[in-house]
Amino acid sequence: MKKTAYINEKIESFNSKIYVPGDKSLSIRWILMASQAVGTSVAYNLLKSEDVFSALNAIKKLGINYKLNKKNCKIFGKGLNGYSFKNNTIINAGNSGTLARLIFGLLVKSKNQIILKGDKSLSKRDFSRVIRPMKMFGQNIKSKNQKLPIKIKGTNYPRPINYKETKGSAQVKSCILLAAMKTPGKTKITSIPSRDHTEKLFKYLKLPIRTSREKKFDLISFKGIKNYKGFDYEIPGDISSSSFFIVLTLLAKNSKILIKNVNINKSRTGIIDILKTMNAKIILKNRKNYKGELIADIFVKSSSKLKSINCPVKMNSRTIDEFLLVFLVCAKANGVSKFNKIGELRNKETDRLRFANNFLNKIGIKTKITNNNFKIYGKPNLKLNKTYKIQKFDKDHRACMLSFIAALGLGGKWIIHDIDSINTSFPNFVSLLKNLGAKIN
């Protein structure tokens, strides 16, 4: 039976220190990279969520063993050409778009065919963005309307490609780079800037990657390799998970929070820059570099005088997973907030732009929406006192968690369906909220 949460009052003032779970993007990338390294790799603070378990199940289907316990996760890699599986092996990516798209790159030279499936939400999403470059490598791909289920078989002779990535998709970049590892010669990518965890991981492992910035594009090149060794990694806290608590603190009265040991990779911290521009009180403390990634503690105080923003387009790729939360803050800001060229939000777990528009209208906020642009007319004195029911959102975990933050930060009586969707990325989300004093039934 699907689970439902009931929230009938705002959260009271809090002053707390918390840790959020390990970064999901890094957790999945570590699993995939470790699965084709030579020897044992160990990760600490691996996120234990459904998306990550889907990645572990996937490498198991590819013939790679692992051991997961409370302390760490060990993966016993067999090298770049070490996968072993029967023809027409089925891999279910669940809800994970990252896993489903990156796995194409791992299979660029697979001798047998994989049948890639996903849940109802993932099966609605378009895979043309990775199908196109992978066919250029020579991979054999069969699909209906470029959606799951998809049949994938490698080629004996992958050829290096030159590819222009125009969507700002880190998944596309990463898929190409994983394929380039097994491809003789030099693969080149010209890409709109997006999160760069894969590039940083390659550099930490001293793989032959080169990156530079030219005007509005990142230039990336990579030469194929024979193998690389297993590696250990301590995964920092997830900035996307942290963002829910950042926004809750901003909306709550007389509250403070310190979120410890969070990945603040610049390609992921658009929400912090946007909120600070809106007069949010956010300070990054104890910055340090860990294997190419920046990590810090995030300190946040309640902010009563928030102002609107005309959001620069360059922030879009850096904020793509956090825009729902930004929109909620805009609902309490003074003035009209404007967002342009954010149509990519329509291609997430659900059409998040449409969901945001309907959600804000539901709580009494005027909006204007087009296919690609969004305006929000803020109400600084917004107070909610009606009953709000959240359902039929395609079990999008971020849409679900947004509803909790709105309920606890703005008031009203809320009935939130499908809260099991949270397990995709943040299984202990509700327990952390309760530790802050939230009353959730």
What's the layout of helices and strands?
Blueprint (H helix, E strand, L loop, with lengths): L3 E4 L7 E5 L4 H12 L2 E7 L5 H12 L3 E4 L3 E7 L10 E4 L4 H10 L7 E4 L10 H10 L2 E5 L2 E7 L8 E4 L4 H12 L4 E6 L5 H8 L4 E6 L2 E7 L8 E3 L4 H13 L4 E8 L6 H8 L3 E10 L2 E9 L8 E2 L11 H9 L4 E4 L12 H11 L3 E4 L4 E4 L6 E7 L6 H14 E7 L11 H7 L6
Helix pairs in contact: 1-2, 1-3, 3-5, 4-5, 7-9, 7-11, 9-10
CATH superfamily of the largest domain: Enolpyruvate transferase domain
Beta-strand content bin: 25-35%
Reported for the largest beta sheet, the result is: 4 strands, mixed
CATH architecture tag of the largest domain: Alpha-beta prism
Number of domains: 2
Please, could you describe this protein's structure?
The chain has helices spanning 24-35, 50-61, 97-106, 128-137, 170-181, 197-204, 239-251, 270-277, 323-331, 352-362, 397-410, 429-435, and strands at 4-7, 15-19, 38-44, 65-68, 72-78, 89-92, 114-117, 140-144, 147-153, 162-165, 186-191, 209-214, 217-223, 232-234, 256-263, 281-290, 293-301, 310-311, 336-339, 366-369, 374-377, 384-390, 411-417. By secondary structure, it is an alpha/beta fold. It has 2 domains: 4-22 and 237-435, Enolpyruvate transferase domain (UDP-n-acetylglucosamine1-carboxyvinyl-transferase, Chain, Alpha-beta prism), CATH 3.65.10; 24-222, Alpha-beta prism (UDP-n-acetylglucosamine1-carboxyvinyl-transferase, Chain), CATH 3.65.10.10. A hairpin with a 2-residue loop joins strand 16 and strand 17. Helix 3 (97-106) runs parallel beside helix 5, helix 4 runs parallel beside helix 5 and helix 7 packs parallel to helix 9. The longest helix has 14 residues, at 397-410. The radius of gyration is 22 Å and the shape is globular. The model has no long low-confidence stretch (mean pLDDT 96).
